Amino acid sequence: MTETEPLSVSRRRLLAGVGAGLSLAAAGCLGDESASITPVSLDGERACDQCGMIIADHPGPVGQIHFEDDEPEGGRPGQFCSSTCTYTYRFDAEDAGRTVRAAFLTDYSLVDQEVFQEGSDTMFSSHVEREAFSRMIDLTVVARSEVVGAMGPELISFGEEEDVESFVEEYGGEPMAAEDVDRGTLEAL
Predict the structure, then answer these.
(1) What is the pLDDT of residues 54-107, one digit of tens each?
(2) Is the CB of residue 61 less than 8 Å from the CB of residue 155?
(3) Among 12, 45, 82, 167, which is least packed, fewest CB within 10 Å?
């Protein structure tokens, strides 16, 4: 690369990388071993642990959960075809006494999503690559928007507040911290 060639790194990817590095550095200083957990790609023929659908075959956000109890899902994180499946499985697992070490959802601030119509439904493309995920605690979700996912009404997740605002302006909905979602939120979808 010469001095006059521009560096081709998107602002979102650069910020995501810096943020991830700072999070890991801070966690290392604080001794939080769950901060070292990273998302995995959910490509191929991976089936949703909640409903059994093939994750990569369906639109909208996807998720994964890493549990403290050595992941009885077969040595891998729980994997899900939608944010609603992710939350439903999480709530059921927590009710059964399991502890979540890290949970991830698609971060639409990190990807170039495609918007498309399927019948009268507006949908976002699915992103199953590991770089498309952010920790649930760092995300804002939008509930009750015009955008649906694999399981119908969906929680669309973003890491950047400006992306949340743009999404709500275009598709409606109510933003909330991803960690504030409860069973009532899912029932209201």
Answers:
(1) 999 999 999 999 998 766 667 899 999 999 999 999 999 999 999 999 999 999
(2) yes
(3) 45
User: Which of 156, 115, 125, 122 shows the shortest CA–CA distance to 139?
Assistant: 156
DSSP per position, 159-171: SSHHHHHHHHHHH
DSSP labels, 17-32: HHHHHHHHHHHHHHT-
CB contact at 8 A, 147 and 171:
yes
User: Are the C-beta atoms of residues 76 and 40 closer than 8 Å to each other?
Assistant: yes
CB–CB of 140/175 below 8 Å?
yes
Report the relative pairing of strands 147-149 and 121-124 from DSSP bridges: parallel
Q: How far apart are CA 9 and CA 30, in angstroms?
A: 30
Integer CA distances (angstroms), 1 to 5, 8, 17, in order: 6, 11, 21
Within 29-188, strands assigned E span 63-67, 78-80, 100-106, 115-118, 121-124, 133-135, 140-143, 147-149, 152-153, 156-158, 174-177
Q: Where are the domains of the chain?
A: 38-187
- pTM here is 0.81
Residue 157 exposed, middle or buried by CB count within 10 Å (0-12, 13-18, 19+): buried
Tell me, rounded to whole angstroms, the distance of Cα 10 from its chain centroid: 20
